[in-house]
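Quick one:
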Amino acid sequence: MRIWFNQTFSSIHAVLRNIRQADADHDVTLLFSHSNPHAPGMMIGDETFIEPSGLEGDSYLEWALAFCRDHGVDWFWPGKAAVLMAENRSRFLALGTDLVLVAEPDALRLLNDKSAFYEALSPAVAISPETVTVNTLAEFDQAFALLRKKYSRVCVKPAVSVYGLGFKVIDEDHGSITHLLRGVQYQIPLQELRSSMQDIARFDSLLVMEYLPGPEWSVDCVARHGDLWFAVQRKKPQKAGYPQTIDDNPAITSMVERLTARYRLNGLFNIQFKQGVDGPCLLEINARPSGGVGMACQSGINLASMAIQTLTQHKPPLTNEQQIYGRLISEINTPVTLNPL
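Output:
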């Protein structure tokens, strides 16, 4: 079976490594491509390719179709342009290539837009933090006043982002010079935020949210078209430098099962939660492997290998692998030497 992974985040290195470790008979050939010849996945792939730079949209789609045809790809696991590839699945199928998709195109678009996702989410499926979407200063002031009456702290983040980029807790007491001198990273002064909004008539959607004070869970999952096979909860420490813990929170387990079924999630994906006053709240669903998926595979279950099993099996395989709850996990960077171009 020939599986192609195109350009994506560096965490794909852990996915490829864990697939390779479990594939003793070499039944799977891993193809990896990236525009960066030194991308981490280049060290693991059986066959590696440099993607042409500058290709976007339809041009990238045509290149991907030609790649699948020329290299006999059985399965294409898209990272870059995943929604576009999903919309054109029939063209890949005509070449004999199927796609590994976390969800159908409409669901993928919804998951990528947190504003639309929160609005559509039923509380019967999962509890989410109270959120107001704003696009103007006036809307922000109204949303902030509303939430500040209910919660001691309020935060903001872009409706479209990855890895938590843009997340800030609003600081009502200090200016940016204090943040700079104290090395504060995840806060933004209220008055300076408002001042920056004054210069823009309408900005991209920004979420104004209640701040959730408790610990965070990153849940790495394997499913087959809405049927959850495995879910590994990584409870993150609230102090830097401490390990994560393999956890078994029943409220999170239930929400993961319902979310997986509701959006017919598939393959390898990640769901984020954070503790609120009344229990864990859903932050987001990431339609891709998480940055910490390698740590999740230290739980006792090789999630990357199990994701490959979803391509050929309808039910979870019989396995002796079991999660070891309470196990402490971490990552250690390892220096490597790269071959010159």
